[in-house]
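For consistency, the fold was encoded as tokens, as this record shows:
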Amino acid sequence: MEAFDPWSCDDAPDPRELAHAEARAAYALGKLDGRLTSLGETEERLFCADLVRRTLLGALTQAGYLDAPERFADWLAGLARGPEHVAEAPSSALGIVRALLCEMALHPWEPLARTAQTLQRCARFVTDEVPLSLEEQAREMEATTGALMRARQLVEGLPPPQDAPLPFEALAALCSAAASDPAFAPIEPEIRSYDTGEVWVALAGLRPITPLWALDYALGHHLSRGRTLARALPMPGVVTTERLLTQNASVQLQLTGAVEAAARAHLRALDTARSRAALLTQRLAGLRRTSRAGEAWILLVGFAPLGLDPLMDAVGVSRRGTYALRDALREIGLAEARQSHGKVLLVASEDARPSNIRAPAASNALGPAVDALDQAMADIDRLLARTEDQEATGT
């Protein structure tokens, strides 16, 4: 008797359909790789800010926190509590965010690591109503970091990249390995029985959620190791419970489509970063004094509205320096101040027109270096004016 081949089931996809899907995914990955190697500095920073946010939201959504996208901005700014607790979630929302930020802060791509480190400094994530005990915090940290470590081990055990230049076979092998791994294998829902007085009723609960977001994060390292991508980008949404449960040939087609979707999401983010970088460069050209307004705007447009205290921690300026940043961004039409939950927030804007009225100069708030620059520029202006007067009088 011939051995059973799981890839030869009756529901196997049409080979031509699979080949076309792999070609589309390979094209998207190739285009993404080319774009990653030609980024300017400002584009890099804008893209990484967006990437960190999408990675965090993708992990929270996969973990069952479906309201994370709506709550993230206020949660990050410390204005409201985070996503609603989900009984089936493997860890708390805050535990997942902290674990991923710690991991990204050590990423080999410096702009991504620096962005994660900045968010660690300025984020004001509100804790749950019932805080975890020290023992519970240690257990949760071990679970989240353990999931990332185990995901990395599974990815490192994939077929050598030189034997499979495209990642599709490796992805199928990863799903097969994860489906039988205790850390990621789908867990059967709990069955509960109830006595109605006449008959016993058995009801299946929701399936407990395993931390597949860790596999999505680790997958980027395999793509980078095989030189499919120049950077080890997280690939949110590629590995799902449904794909682990689908142990037949159709999973290849599903994974291929998921990889293409993730690559195109990165491409859209790169397009947005390019347009925002052009806008920022154009608007900042109108500022005479030096400041960290551009760095602050990248945080605001990439993550969420921030208060002045988080900006102090993120950008490294004093309280008076944040006022100068606020005035500079408002002057060039890139941000506006709003009141929310009794706090003043700086909100990024991309559509506002620059103000015709220049904001009052606040050079002292930006330190002695800027004061010296302004004084030097004033001396040059006076010298030029004196020279023009002498030429006009012939003396």
